[in-house]
Amino acid sequence: MTDWHFHPGQNFECSQCSRCCRGWRIAVDPQTAQNLQATPFHKRLEEKNGRFFARKDSQEACSFLTSERRCQLHSELGAAAKPRGCRQFPFRLTNTPDGVFVGTSFSCPSIQNNQGDSLEAYRSELEELAQGLPLWGAAGLTVWQDKRLAWSDYRRLEDFILQSTGVEAGLGQGLWALAQWSLKPQRPLQTYLENSAAALEPPAEPLMLMEHHWFSQLLKHCGEKPVGRHREAPSEPLERYLRALVHGKSLINRRPLLGNLALLYLLPRFYRYWYARSGSPDQTLDQCERKIATHPNNLDDLVIRMADDFRDQLEPIF
Ligand code: SF4
User: How far does the centroid of ligand 1 lie from the alpha carbon of residue 90, in Å?
Assistant: First the structure.
């Protein structure tokens, strides 16, 4: 029997706002695309590089979205006719050796505002969607290049981040520890974690090294510039958001672990940047979600540069 891990305290109830049907390229999984070939709806699919997407209208909305903000596939063919990603939204399911972890998208206003029922109320719907999910972590996780971290060590890293005083600080320390480990993996990750706080203090020195080298490159690569704090972003939604991302296993999907950790470490900068521009926590969280979802995977060069910078910090610490 599968163990399920829901983010404690997170609620959800769809308000039919249709935000999730706008502004995205809505991917259509191969099975759904094939099923729709026998219906008139196939004309509203487009194929790009072997993948299928729902066409968008002139307002950037999914062409299956009706003027009553309903999904036409759902209302005419039933919920099962919708693309897998639409059936799953705003949930993100990650299958691991410890069971299925349920993350959520903070693009959804209901998730942001924590409205509705506890996530566990959706368990029976999610059980069907969890069937056939790939299993992450059973053979370890790619950190970068050929470096792989055992699943038990990954959980140690994750616990360390979540138990830190402030997830943002935990991400910084975890990033330092993982980069150090990837350079000298003969030492246990735990040793680096235990030394990370001391290594990053006083904050000015090692952090400055990071800021001036790979960190600024990473920001440039991500297409944003740091901004001054002329409009102070609220910290509570950010903390809650980062905690939910780590719990929901955002660190282990798609990209190598070190790249994901670097991206999450950068996320608070983006959060403050977009908040300074918009003044809206809602839009800011939506932008952060888009950054995570659309960011390219080619962080390798930057991660290598980052590791080189970290190398300079190894000897004084041990
Ligand atoms: S964004 Fe959330 S609340 Fe709005 S329609 Fe989508 S799932 Fe429902």
Answer: 7
